[in-house]
Amino acid sequence: MIPRRTRVKICGITRPSDALAAAQAGADALGLVFYPASKRAVSTTQAAVIQSVTPVFVSWVGLFVDPEPEQVKSVLNQIKLDCLQFHGDEDAGFCESFGLPYMKAIRVKPGRDGMATDPMPEITAHPNASAILLDAYDPSMPGGTGKRFDWRVARQCVEASEVPIVLAGGLKASNVGKAIRDVQPWALDLSSGVESEPGLKDPALIDAFFDEVNRVSN
Ligand SMILES: O=C(O)c1ccccc1N[C@@H]1O[C@H](COP(=O)(O)O)[C@@H](O)[C@H]1O
Q1: Phi and psi angles of residue 214, each rounded to the nearest 5 degrees, phi first
Q2: Given 18, 83, 95, 135, which residue is catalytic?
Q3: Is position 18 annotated as part of the catalytic site?
Q4: ipTM value
């Protein structure tokens, strides 16, 4: 499925002003990180304040990394989320157990021969996912690292997968045009590429990113 306009999720929102800047620029979805080790982690209290200032028609995605079920349920009891993003080693049964649409992140590992490993077996293990997110593998952190992976692998997954593919990992204004042209993903997800420092978005970088997405998509 080739989108006429590539959707964009901005992840790791920690401040109301950043949510507003992303919504004004045209973000389709905003991500709230509920992974305590991340510099972008928010409490449900912070998340509720951020959501309260954001205009309608922006989807909310809650990001978790190998959470206990109780953590996810507790967040869902306190704030409204449209989609769950699982960025660890969660299996399909776990991801489906909350009754919400979910996006499964798969981190593309470099293989021994220098070629990236094939994510398709992991993708097909999540046939009921609403989307599969492909991100770079970094042994030190499960995501939000600003690192890229081999986009040729992402293109192969877009062609082979029945589930929409979201491209992530090191996206920024200077490379998003090539990402859209080469990979043709359903959507893009990014955090570091629109930040002045981890957790703090920069409205000028957000605008530059969307300018480029709009230029290439139209
Ligand atoms: O943003 C984080 O801090 C984070 C922490 C743990 C797992 C995933 C995280 N973010 C996701 O990582 C990718 C790529 O981010 P980046 O653009 O390379 O910084 C993205 O999908 C974020 O949702």
Answers
A1: -65, -40
A2: 135
A3: no
A4: 0.98
Dump pLDDT digits (tens) for 168-215. Answer: 999 999 999 999 999 999 999 999 999 999 999 999 999 999 999 999
**Is the pTM of the predicted complex or chain greater than 0.90?**
yes
Distance from chain centroid for Cα 183: 16
Question: Is 11 marked active-site?
Answer: yes
What torsion do the CA atoms of 61, 66, 68, 72 make, to the nearest 10 degrees? Answer: 0
Q: Which of 11, 83, 95, 157 is catalytic?
A: 11
Surface-to-core class of residue 71, CB atoms within 10 Å of its CB (0-12 exposed, 13-18 middle, 19+ buried) = middle
Ligand 1 centre to CA of 168 (Å) is: 8
For the four alpha carbons of 169, 76, 70 and 127, in that order, the dihedral sign comes to negative
> Can you list the domains of the chain with their CATH numbers?
7-217 (3.20.20.70)
Q: Whose CA is nearest to atom 13 of ligand 1?
A: 144
